[in-house]
Each structure stands twice: as structure tokens, then as C-alpha cells.
Amino acid sequence: MLEIDGIAAAYGNIEALRGVDLLVEEGGITCLLGPNGAGKTTLMMTIAGILKPRRGTISFLDRNITGMTPSGVVRRGIALVPENRLVFPDMNVHENLVAGAYLRLGKRKSQVQQDIDHVFERFPRLQERSKQMAGTLSGGEQQMLAVARALMARPKLLMMDEPSLGLAPLVVEEIFRIISDLNADGTTIFLVEQNAHMALQVADHFFLLEQGQVTFSGKPGQLSEHEVIQRAYLGKGPQRNQPAADQGRPDRTTLPSG
Amino acid sequence: MDDIYLITILSNIGMISFIALSAYLLLVVGEISFGQQAFFAVSAYGSGIATAMWGWPIWLGLLWGALVAGAAALVVAIPTVRLRGLYFSVATLAFAEMVRLIFEIFTYQVEIDGELVGPDGSDGFRDIRAIYDSNVSAFEYMLIIYGLLAVVLIGFLILERSRLGAIFRMIGEDPMLTEMQGLNVTKYKILAVVMAGIVAGIGGALYAHLATYVEPKIFNVMLGVHALAYGLIGGLGTAFGPLIGVAIDIGLLESIRAISGYRMIVFGGLVAVLLIVRPRGLLDEAAMHWLRGRWRGLIRAEN
Amino acid sequence: MVDFIQNCLDGIMLGSSYALLAIGFTLIFGVMRRLNLSYGPSIMVGAFVGTLVYLEFKANAVAIAAATVVGAVIVGIYVERLCFRAIRRGAAVASMVSSFVIWMQLEEIVTVVFPDRTYFFPPMVTADPIDLGPFFFKVENIVMFAVAAVMTVLLHWLLQYTRFGLALRAVSENPRAALFMGINVGAVMFLAFVIASAFGGVAAYLIVSADGQITPLFGLWATFKGLIAMMLGGMGSIPGAILGGLLLGVVEAQSIWYLGTEYRDLSAYFLLFLFLVFRPGGLMGQLAVERELAATRRV
Questions:
Q1: Given CB atoms, is C298 within the 8 Å cutoff of chain A?
Q2: Least CB-CB distance to B91: which of C105, C266, C273?
């Protein structure tokens, strides 16, 4: 569905992506794991059209979308749930959702209202808070709103950048339940995560991104969870010495919220 | 005649450099001040009162002016230091305009030799004659200005190599990170504001005595914003930056007579283009880094 | 008591023009997060374009007003391209200083074209003040207030009920997120600038025609009145800009009456300083300021 071929991109003078190849299959949950600074968010920005790649091509549903504007990418059917959620704090929940359908607002107003009803069915908590300012929602609710807002674009592919960031463990579980549900209802999902433990439970396929390059591609179970976590947190690639087994498995999978 | 003209321009460059350096110091700690003219004004009046009305010698008058400016800066710094960004900028603007408007109504005069001397509201403060009474020539006074400027500049250069200077730059880059290093950002910012006030104050005291006459409207917001612009034109990487900014504006453009009357049209356009290419000025941090590298390379080559 | 109420009424009339200036300011600040010091000067140029149209063609009030607005918008676009669009993200100080030097440039251009500095500006109406019980109103002030009210309602409608308004609010709340929604952020910023300049142009026409004259100093005056009113109301808040403008007008009118003309600006700046120290968010922006502070503390 989404094919990324030899993408190189840079933030200023730092080359953050150095020839990334990656494939997202239609209908599944594809996961991208990797340590901080490996280039995960850069890749998301590049797909979303915010950063222009230096080399390589991105194609979506067999059409080249490399270098397209962000609105063009949304129009093609890719929506992004950004890192740190980025809801519009001084708009209420309903307005945030309408903003998510921005590109359809001109022509199909009634359709948008239908979609909002639909989203509210999936997220009754948001309906209760429909008139509340998004900035006053809890972290978990804001994450739900960010997901719901992205759904309002009727995406064929939903990209999520670190949806578990800064949320309490129970809330993280809820978010991942939502991800599975969405996928079960037919939305293809491309998930970027640091929380490898949770991500591996839902993923059909995963990639490891280390220092701007994909260093592993496979199904959960092909690599021990221990190794995935090591590499997703610390970026210990196979080319280097494996750390001793007792060398502290990082167990702080989430930061305390609030 | 040209000599006097040259001396006047050079003296002006020197005096304005103080207020430009003052605004630059605050830019280094990451704050934009529209109000450094307030300290320039307070010191101009303060030192003028000291020499013309109280009969103090010039050097004491200059010192007093700088101290009064520093004290005024402390008074502003304490309530405003926790403000950031535009809030701080506008607070400095409000303060400076308050100072100017108070001088518009401030009258304090005494009779000396049958004449009333002292500030008289919007009519200003005349006859600050200390340098003429003690027979200091325009050229000598220019030397005094540049002597003091050199002292302040050396102070800035030492500061930039010191721990304090490093802390100032760190606050400018990221105050939160600085706070997390266990440094008291509030305290350092107050210090920076007071230092900047004193530097502007030296300029103001020098100005009052050269002009012999000050009036409130000189100290309007234009002076402060120019001071700010000089730092950004010359570059935020070094204390020479603001001096370059002043020299380009007053020295270069004012002396090209062909463009007199169109100076700001040319200057405005040039600076706008410059800021597109170099948003942190000619000598920005990167340029200074490169220059220092070249300099070290040269020294190595010599040895 | 009658004096006090009359002062309040005068203040509100005067304040409505401040409110228009502040709305333009806050629109630009809201989407750009940068201060446009050239705002006042660009509408000042607009007013001089109106003067030119009057001098050359003896045009009527509508044509002069239209020329003022068009002039303000064209100069506004010049400022947007040069000082904001062309300067990269993250260089807010450079944008501000750039807008300042362009201010100087605009002022000098006007001085070169209009060497007499002070010019007659035709009043929009010539009618006697209206008495209403113990109070009286100048007709031009009533027009000013009415136009300000209509424009405010229009803007409210635009922001709350149109697609463009939604985009504009989205950009001012979070430009990055707005991009992800498919909003063309650059175009929205540009249009916000155009609308703000048009508001400024209308304000300039109302103020200058009530004064009966125009000087290049109007630019400075407009920038600082707009800035103060915006800060009093709360940066980036449209209702705040209106309330801030009215508050500023009333405070000025009261100080002129009770303290004397020389205290007019002094009390305005004193009020501003007090607000910044004790309530930096102004009348309507305190929540946003506190949220920012809370976020800082969390990190």
C-alpha cells in the first residue's frame, strides 16, 4: 500500500534518514520501532509531505507521492496522528473533529456530520465532552481526540506517531485496544512506537529503524522481545557486540502523565 | 569644519554604542527590550542634575548617572523578570514610556547665579555645562567617550569568555535547561538587566554633557528600537556586533551625502534583505565560531 | 457623575477605534506569533494614499475610504512578504526588527512624497453633535463605533462559521497540526495579514477623518495604541482586543478629564505595566498564559 524506497532526508545539516526502504501492507498493522533520534519522526514528516526528501521515492496505492504538499498527501488518503497529539487547545472537541475533515468541508457538509456521529459512537467519551475545550481534556482523552480527528479525514492509511507517549499504563492499553479495533474495522495502520512491548502485541509486521536505516524487518516472534526492546531503546544493532543479558532491561515503558 | 563634523559623528557613534551594547546584552539572555532608552534618560537627567545643580565634578556625575540607571534597572527587573518573550518586551516599553512621560512633567529647578537651572518638564533641561566650564574640548571629550567605551567593551569580551557569560548564553538558548542545571535563572536575569541598565546609563550621562541640553522626547521608543536593531544587524555572536550596526547606520549612511533624505529607504531595504539571509546578523554565532577557528589557525601557522 | 459617564461614553467611542487597531494586531500575532511593528506605518501609508486620492481627484468619502483600505492592504502584503514570509521559522526577533526597519523606510517614503508632513484629511460627515439628555455625542464618533461594531460581528462570523475561519483558528492554535489537517498554512497566514491590514485601513480612515488631518507620526501612534490595547485584552484573543481597546479608551478619557492631557498616555502605560506584572494574559488571555506556565513547569 505504502512503499518507501531509498528515502534520505535531513534536518538542517544532520542526515536523519539514510536510505530507508519500507513497505506497509494493506489491511494490517505495521510497526516502526527504534530509539530516540533514529529518524522515526523524520520519516513520518517526510511521508506527510512536511519535509522534502533528498533522495528516494514514496508511493501510495501505486502512485508516486514523493514531494507532494501536506494537503495533497491528506487528499490521497493518509492521515497522521502526530507526536504529542497536537490537538487545538482552544477549540472544543466538536470543532477539532470538524478541522480534521477540513478538506471535505467545502462540498460535503452533511457527510462530515455523519462522520462525526460515527466517531462519537466509537468514542462515547468524546461525545460527552463535545463542547469542552480540547486543552482541558486529560492526556488520554486528547490522544483519543487526535485519533478521532485523523479519522475525520477518512484515511485509507492512518499513521500514528508515538501514541503512548506520556500516558499512564492503563491509558496506553486503552489506546492500543482502539488501534486494534480500528484495524479490525478495516483501517490500515502504520504505527511508530517506542513502547516495543505493546507494539509487538498488535503488530502484524514490524521494522527496526536505527541511525537512519532499517536494520530489521519481520513478524513479531522472529526476534526475541528482549532483543527488540534492547534495540528499540538503545539502538544496539547486530553489527555491534550484544550486551550482556543482565544489562538492565529498561522497564520504564511509560512516563508518568500529568 | 570637517574636523568638528567628524568629531560629532564619531562622538555620536560612541554614545549610541552604549545603548546598543545594552540592548545586545539582553538579547544574549534571550530577551528583547524596547526600553533601554529609559536608563539612558534616567542617567542623562541624573548626571546632569548632579553636575549642573549640585556642582559635582564630571567624573562623579558620570558615575552617579550610571548608578542611578542601574538602580532604575533593578526596580524594573524585579517585577518583570518572570515575564518572557513579548510580555517582557512590552513591559520594558511601558516602563520606558512612563519614564519619558514623567520627565515631560517633572520639574525640579534651583537658582544658580540668578538663573533657574534644572529639568523643566517638556521644556527639557538646559545648561548642563560641566565640560565647557572645565574647558574640555570636543576632541578630548570624544576621547573620554571612546575610553569608556573601550572599558565597557573589554568588560564584555571578558564576560563572553567567563562562566557568567556562558550562563547568560545558556539562559538565552534555553532557560528551562539552565534552571535544571541548578542555576537560578531569575537571579542571573536580574543581574543582566541591571548590567544592561548601567551600560545604557554611561551612554546617557555622556550624552547629556555633550549636548548640554536634554529633553524628554529624545528618549522615545525610536531610540530603544534602533538600539535593538543595531545588535541584530551587526550580529548576535559578539559584542562587536552592535558596534558594527551603529557604525553602518550612523557612520556609513549618514556620511554618504548622496543619499541624505533617502537614508532610511536604503538602510531599511538593506537591513530587511540582510535579515532574510542572516537572521542573527552579520557576525552571528556561526560566523564567530568560524572566525575564531581561522584566528587560531593563523596563530598556529605563525608558530 | 454626569462627567464620569460622559467620559466613559467618549472613551468607548475612542476605544472602538483602538479596538479595530488591536483586532488587526492580534490577528497577525495570532497566526504568526511574531510582532509586526510595521502595522501602524502600513495603515498610515494607506491613509496617505487616501489623501492622495483626495488631493488629485477631490474624491468623495467612499472613494477615499476605499483607497485607504486598498493602500493599507498593498503595503501590508509588502511587509508580509519581506519581513515574515521570507524569514525562516524560529527567527521571530529578526522578523520584528525587519518590520521595524521597514517602518522607518515607509515613514521616509511618505516624507519624500508628502514633504509638508501634515495634510488635511476630509471628514466623512459634517454634522453637529447630538444631545441626548445631559450627554452629547459627536456624529463621527457614533459612525466610528457603529462601523467597529459591524466589522467585529463580521469577523466573528468569519472566524466561527466559515471554513476559512476554522483554518485560521487552527493555524493560530497550532500551525504544525493545521498542516496535518491539509490546511495550507502559508496561504492562511497571508490572508490573515490581508484581513488585518483591511481592518487597520478601516480604523485608519475612521480615526484620521475624525481628526481632520494626517501626519507620518500616525504610524507610530497606531502601532502603539494597537499594541497596548492588544496586550490589555490578551494576546491573540479577538474579544480581548475589543475589550482592551474599549478599556484603553475609557481610561484615557477619564485621565484627560480628571488629571489633564499630559497624563493621558502616562496612565495608559501605567495600566499596561500593572497588567503585565500582575496579569500578563490581559483581560481574556490569562488561561492561555497559565497553561503555558503549567506546561513549562511540567517539563
A1: yes
A2: C273
3-state secondary structure C102-131: HHHHHHHHHHHHCCCCCEECCCCCCCCCEE
**Per-residue DSSP letters for A130-172?**
TTSBGGGS-HHHHHHHHHHHHHTT--SEEEEE-TTTT--HHHH
Q: Is C184 close to A99, i.e. CB distance below 8 A?
A: no
**pLDDT band for position C295 (50/70/90)?**
low
- For chain C, give the percent of residues with pLDDT over 70: 96
The CATH class given to the A2-234 domain equals alpha beta
**Residue A75 pLDDT grade (very low, low, confident, very high; cuts 50, 70, 90):** very high
Window from A159-163, A216-220, C130-134, C152-156 with minimum mean pLDDT? C130-134
Provide residues of A within 8 Å CB-CB of chain C.
48, 50, 69-71, 73-75, 79-80, 82, 86-91, 95, 98-100, 102-103, 105-106, 135, 149-150, 153, 258
If you write DSSP's letter for every residue of B246-287 in order, what string do you get?
A: HIIIIIIIHH-GGGTTSHHHHHHHHHHHHHHH-TT-TT-HHH
Q: Please report the pLDDT score of residue B110 as a whole number.
A: 85
In a domain, B255, yes or no: no
Answer whether residue B276 is part of any domain: no
**Number of folded domains in chain C?**
1
SS3 B200: helix
Residues 6+ apart with CB under 8 A from B250: B9, B12, B13, B16
What range does the domain containing C101 cover?
Answer: 2-298
pLDDT in tens, A180-228: 999 998 899 999 988 888 888 899 999 988 888 888 888 888 877 777 7
User: How far does C185 lie from chain A, in Å, by closest CA?
Assistant: 10
How high is the mean pLDDT of chain A?
Answer: 84
In angstroms, how far is the first alpha carbon of chain C from the final one?
Answer: 52
Cα separation, B203 vs B43, whole angstroms = 8
Domain count along chain B: 1
More confident residue, A228 or B100: B100
Confirm whether the ipTM is greater than 0.85. yes
Q: Does B102 touch chain C (CB under 8 A)?
A: yes
Residue B262 belongs to a domain:
no
Which of B83, B94, B280 minimises the CB distance to C272?
Answer: B94
Q: Do B275 and C277 touch (CB under 8 A)?
A: no
CA distance B193 to B185: 12
In terms of pLDDT, which residue wins out, B75 or B84?
B75
Picking from B33, B98, B107 by the largest number of C CB atoms within 10 A of its own CB, the best residue to mutate is B98
pLDDT at C89 over 80: no
Domain ranges of chain A: 2-234
Measured between CA atoms, how close is A258 to chain C, in angstroms? 8
Q: What phi and psi, each to the nearest 5 degrees, are found at residue A133?
A: -65, 135
**Residue type present at position A107:** K
Inter-helix orientation angle C2-32/C139-161, to 10°: 40
Domain span at B193 = 2-219
Q: Which of B205, A222, B229, B295 is nearest to C101 (CA)?
A: B229
Sign of CA dihedral B271, B276, B278, B281: positive
* C291 lies within 8 A of chain A by CB: yes
Instruction: Give the containing element (helix H, strand E) for B21.
Output: helix B2-28
C173 shares contact with chain A (CB less than 8 Å) = yes
Give the CATH number, domain containing residue C92.
1.10.3470
Whether B214 is covered by a domain: the verdict is yes
Quickly tell me which residue has 453637529 as its cell. C128
Nearest to C23 by CA among C206, C207, C148, C113: C148
Place of cell 521559522: C89
